[in-house]
C-alpha cells in the first residue's frame, strides 16, 4: 500500500528502515533516502520526504513501525538485497 498511496518505487519501499518513518513538525512522514549503507536511490531527485497517508495511519502502520523498533529490527520489512547489484526489489515488481 505504500507504493499505491505514495508513488514509491518497489526498491524504495523494500529498503525502508524503521528510522525512515519520522514525525516531522507533528506530521508522520516517510523519508526516502540513501542515508543507510545499503540504501540506494535511482536518481538524486528521488530523495524526498513524503507525509504518510491517513489510510495507512488508520490501518495501524505507525503501530507496526513501533513494533519493529521494539523488536530491534532495523529494516521496516524483511526484504534483503539480491544479487551482485544488490537489487532490493528483485522479487517485487509493479
Task: Please write out the topology.
Blueprint: H1 2-6, H2 10-14, E1 21-24, E2 27-32, E3 48-51, H3 54-58, H4 61-70
Antiparallel strand pairs: 1-2, 2-3
InterPro entries: DNA_brk_join_enz, Integrase-like_cat_sf, Integrase_catalytic
Keywords: DNA recombination
Protein name: Integrase
Walkthrough of the structure:
- This protein is an alpha+beta fold and 94 residues long.
- The protein has one domain (2-70).
- Helices cover 27% and strands 15% of the residues.
- It contains four helices and three strands, in the order H-H-E-E-E-H-H.
- It has helices at 2-6, 10-14, 54-58, 61-70, and strands at residues 21-24, 27-32, 48-51.
- Strands 1-2-3 form a three-stranded antiparallel sheet, with no helix packed on it.
- The N and C termini lie close together (12 Å).
- The mean pLDDT is 79.
- InterPro entries: DNA_brk_join_enz, Integrase-like_cat_sf, Integrase_catalytic.
- This is Integrase.
Q: Uncertain spans, ≥5 residues at pLDDT below 50?
A: none
Order of helices and strands: HHEEEHH
Q: Largest sheet, if any?
A: 3 strands, antiparallel
Q: Outline, from the CA principal axes?
A: globular
Spatial separation of the terminal alpha carbons? 12 Å
- Portion in beta strands: 5-15%
Gyration radius, in Å: 13 Å
Can you list the strand order of the major beta sheet?
1-2-3
Count of the domains: 1
**Helix-residue proportion:** 25-40%
Oligomer kind: single chain
- Per DSSP E runs of 2 or more residues, the count of β-strands stands at 3
Keywords: DNA recombination
Protein name: Integrase
GO molecular function, one term: DNA binding
InterPro entries: DNA_brk_join_enz, Integrase-like_cat_sf, Integrase_catalytic
